[in-house]
């Protein structure tokens, strides 16, 4: 098993492609996106029944090595500061 970081990000759907570009720049090519999630945060209540996805939130998570996370963490911090959203990071292990 290898020590990893699980990176979970909740972000407005309109910014998802910018986040994916950031991942691509750091060669993070594996991730999962769950679209139209509901919840309440800094921008108020977000529901999954909007007519368009402009005001919906997406959840994306990835798992990367500790060293890869160290490379990208300040970029993610700047990203969420600029566009909003939440990033939760936890220690994880990958069963190989």
TrEMBL record:
<dbReference type="InterPro" id="IPR015867">
    <property type="entry name" value="N-reg_PII/ATP_PRibTrfase_C"/>
</dbReference>
<dbReference type="InterPro" id="IPR011322">
    <property type="entry name" value="N-reg_PII-like_a/b"/>
</dbReference>
<dbReference type="Pfam" id="PF00543">
    <property type="entry name" value="P-II"/>
</dbReference>
<dbReference type="GO" id="GO:0030234">
    <property type="term" value="F:enzyme regulator activity"/>
</dbReference>
<dbReference type="GO" id="GO:0006808">
    <property type="term" value="P:regulation of nitrogen utilization"/>
</dbReference>
<protein>
    <submittedName>
        <fullName>Transcriptional regulator</fullName>
    </submittedName>
</protein>
<dbReference type="InterPro" id="IPR002187">
    <property type="entry name" value="N-reg_PII"/>
</dbReference>
């Amino acid at each position: 098993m290898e020590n990893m970081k699980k990176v979970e990000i909740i972000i407005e759907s309109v910014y998802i492609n910018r986040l994916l570009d950031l991942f691509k720049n750091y060669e993070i090519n594996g991730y999962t996106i769950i679209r139209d999630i509901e919840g309440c945060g800094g921008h108020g209540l977000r529901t999954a029944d909007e007519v368009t996805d402009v005001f919906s939130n997406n959840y994306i998570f990835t798992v990367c090595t500790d060293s890869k996370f160290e490379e990208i963490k300040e970029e993610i911090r700047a990203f969420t500061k600029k566009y909003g959203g939440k990033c939760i990071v936890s220690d994880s292990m990958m069963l190989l």
